[in-house]
Specification:
Layout: E1 5-8, H1 10-19, E2 24-30, H2 36-48, E3 51-55, H3 57-63, E4 72-76, H4 85-90, E5 97-102, H5 107-120, E6 124-128, H6 137-143, H7 146-149, E7 152-155, H8 158-167, E8 171-175, E9 181-182, E10 192-197, H9 205-209, E11 213-216, H10 228-247
Helix pairs in contact: 1-2, 1-6, 5-6, 5-10
Length: 258
């Protein structure tokens, strides 16, 4: 099968080799690099049976128009689809923690959000198919391996998907600068899908109307808003903090009724 695209950067290439070695067709490594990271890639490629080529830097530049590939590029095939979202939710051993991104079209922001999701143990990231950056090379590099580890679902109808989550008793909580309640004062449920929009436009009207609750992140300086990945980190880690407090005996704040 012909490789579909290139990924670049040591984190992204190593993560793909470890998670889906069969999807890696070839690896091109800067012939001038002999450091620990290049040795890690060479060792992982050998273990996976993937052909590794030592090439001049200029050849690597050709894959990405002179971009910052860090000295390694891999040609990869599309990964076979993971289990569907419904199957994933059915198999969870704890209340779902989901991240929904409405209109995040910048691949750098999407990659950073995936990295946040991985760090917080988010069970899945959900995006609208027609209003999101795809899982391309830039996303994979910025995500530093999270593009391979975090289940990612692009759905045709986001409002319908949110309604289906609510049928599973998953609360849909959106962020809005004009919301009455702050992130830290609101009663947040255990099973939760955090919804964030693009930095400029926020979440769309239909998506906002589908939310059970809207909260704002309190801002104390001159800056009016945060980058979406920073906002996502505050929200999902706040959910994790409250879960930890509940396990330690502090209890979760009671959730509001729908």
């Amino acid at each position: 099968m012909k490789p579909q695209h290139a990924i670049f950067g040591f984190h992204a290439v190593l993560a793909r080799l470890r998670a889906e070695p069969g999807s890696v067709a070839e690896i091109f490594l800067d012939e001038s690099r002999h450091d620990a990271r290049s040795r890690d890639v060479a060792t992982a490629a050998e273990r996976a049976g993937v052909t590794l080529h030592r090439v001049p830097t200029k050849r690597l530049d050709g894959f990405y128009g002179g971009g910052r590939h860090q000295g390694v590029v891999a040609l990869v095939r599309a990964i076979a689809p993971r289990a569907g979202l419904e199957d994933l939710l059915d198999g969870l051993a704890e209340p779902p923690l989901l991240l929904v991104l409405d209109g995040v079209t910048d691949p750098h922001n999407l990659g950073a959000c995936l990295r946040v999701a991985d760090g917080a143990g988010v069970h899945a990231v959900i995006v609208p198919r027609d209003r999101s950056a795809g899982l391309g090379a830039t996303v994979a590099k910025v995500a530093s391996g999270a593009a391979e580890s975090v289940p990612f679902f692009a759905v045709t109808n986001l409002a319908r998907q949110l309604a289906e989550l609510k049928e599973r008793n998953i609360w849909v909580v959106g962020t809005d600068d004009a919301a009455e309640r702050s992130l830290y004062d609101a009663a947040l449920p255990g099973p939760i899908a955090w919804v964030l929009g693009s930095e400029g436009e926020g979440i769309r009207r239909l998506t906002r109307e589908a939310c059970d609750l809207l909260v704002r992140i309190p801002m104390h300086g001159a800056v009016a808003s945060l980058n979406v990945s920073v906002a996502a980190a505050l929200c999902v880690f706040e959910s994790r903090r409250r879960r930890r407090a509940a396990r330690a005996g502090g209890g979760l704040a009671p959730s509001s009724s729908r």
